[in-house]
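Section: Multi-chain targets

For targets with more than one molecule, the full set of components is provided together so that the structure can be written out for the assembly as a whole rather than chain by chain. Components appear in the order listed by the source. The example entry contains two components.
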Amino acid sequence: MFDPFIVKASLVTGVALGALYGILAVSLVLSFRMSRIVAFVHGGIALCSAFLYWYLTANPARTSGHGTNLAYATKEWPKAPAVILAVLLGAGLAALFAWVATGRMARWPRVTVTTFALGGMLIFTGITQEIWPGAFEIVPSPFGKGRVTLWGANVSHHQIAVIALLVFLVIVLHFVVTRTKTGVQMRAISDDVEAAEMVGVPVRKISMGVWCISGALAGLGGVLLTPMTRLGASVILFVLIRSLAGAVLGGFKSLPLALLGAMLFGQVEAHTAGGTFGKISSGWREVILMAVLFVGVVIVARRKQSQFRLAET
Amino acid sequence: MSVTPPKTSLRLPGSLAGFQLTPPVVGVLGLALVMGIVPQFVKEYWIFLSSAGFLTAITVMGLAVIIGWAGQVTLAGAALLGTSVYITGYLLREGLAGSGAWPFIPAMIGGVVCATVLSALVAIPTARFSGVYVMVLTMGLQVTMERTLFTYTWISGGAGADVRVPRPEIFGFKFDTDMRYFYLCFVVMVIAGLLMHALRRSRHGRAIHLVRTDRQAAAAVGISPWRYRVIAFAVGGFLIGIAGAFTAPLYESPPALTQYVLFQSLFLLAIPVVAGTQTIVGLASVAVAFQILPAALQSHRLSVYLLGGAGLIGGTLLGPRGMAGTLLDMLQQKRDVARLSELAGTDEDSATPTGSGHSGE
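Its structure, encoded as tokens over all components, is:
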């Protein structure tokens, strides 16, 4: 029989984990809806923004290697301007990527552009590794260190703020995508670039704008997720894969569904790790999560295929 | 009209009469000369690194079958390679379950079968889907392997464990020195390249290409796109498995887990993207260069992330034929221009004596 205390605690942890994955999932869906590619580059953007935020805000006495000549000379700025700069960096890097992806590569096969995005992710990761080699740092939260107990789970103010911010962003973006003229233009570009161009949609302008917003979100994601984990290339990549799974479970279609997908993935992870179903080794947890992703991909891909067939008939 | 002999061949006298030194023959002879002489004068470190480069080339050939022939992008290259490395290493290790180490060939078969089956298993349910979903799932497989099989110390050996994986003995011949192993890896790479070449020209190779080019046309002529995509993944897994099986004894101890993580998959993916999948020699050359370059430029701290990223971006921008294909195109273009100007010259020569009277116009 399930232990109610463990179930409740796992539920809360699952929501926090889902929020962690949800930030990048939302930015992935946004760029997928625009260009029909999986924007792996957001992993690199999130990493660059997270590193910038850490460099500007961290206390030098708390960085690794403190007291040696290998210590990082971080700046200890106030958090708010550092967050803004990190988000702007995300938008700028995404604009740089989009300049190529929506220009010269606008009509290239999706898989090729996705491979290009993988290259972008590696380049951005390489740049951070060149500037801060081997860094694996603790990042201060923009929302302080406070904690509360909710349903038996110890939750930080940071986690609560991330969930609230994420829900707010999804509502706003969903409204923009579904209810505004810009949203209609976005969907038109996503469905058929050439047709959208023919009816006078400013394709390049809208595409660049959406990429900038998704890049800013990825940058914000980098800033918000590292205080919950650690700052390092492997950590961001790990979260990116979970976020990708969330986006896939949401069908890469709508922002609320992506958030739901991320939450579902967070719940599965929290319950398997938290002991709701008894003790499960970390290896088996990965297999279960992989199975969830696998089933999700099969369902989504089959649905898309049948929609395509219906459209053809 | 005089006939000029082809410029690219040279007739040899005596008993070798009839044997022409065509460019491929010159290439093979040059390569044999380089392979025979150069290793005698370089440090063992470079010999070792070149062996790793040859094995990377085999891995990349496997990826080229999946990426170039079947048009699918797999992000599980390092996972398949690591699986074969660790399984083969586990079977080769002395004192396995009290039964002693396995001989190399059966151990190799074990590693290769695991990599082939794993690759085909991912392809079976996904071969009908678009490439983006295949990418996501292969990425999932990569992470799962990293966090399951590779973390079990009884298979991978564990970090810093004192576990020895012996160099192989094949048909009574011991490949126990770096130099001998270097030649073994080179021969295996050549065999893998020939195998790939033969497969590309075979009925099945052409079917895989047709499925990538036009699925509906393939289905119309009775070729199952699903079946041939699965075959491409299996062949890719097989070649990667071979590379892994020979990598296991290269280090003489289980390699670190960090060599088979997702970033390594991306680094491997960059090689066929840069080289293009049109020429096997181009693939092998770029693979060896990618293996040796970071070590050669160690003093400049060349990041493998930057190298891989630049490779993926540069290769994508070069187009599907990659660097090798672009070079071949440029050479072909140069030859065409030369031939055209030669033809134009011949026409002028033949036109002048008969003189139509329009030559000065």
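Chain B touches chain A through 48 residues (CB under 8 Å).
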